[in-house]
Amino acid sequence: MEEKLKRPMKFEPYHPTGYGRLFDFSEDTILDWVDVLIHYLSPSALKDPDYWPDKPTNYRESLEAYGNQVINLVKVLMGILSKGLGLESSRLEEAFGGDEAQVVLRVNHYPRCQQPDLVMGLSPHSDGSAMTVLLHDEVEGLQVKKDDAWWMVKPIPGALIVNMGDMMQLVSNGRFMSMEHRAVVSSGTERISIVVFYAPTANAILGPIGIDQHHAIYKSIKYGDYLATYMNKELKGKERINSLLK
Question: What are the tens digits of pLDDT across the range 228-244?
Answer without folding.
Answer: 877 766 768 899 999 99
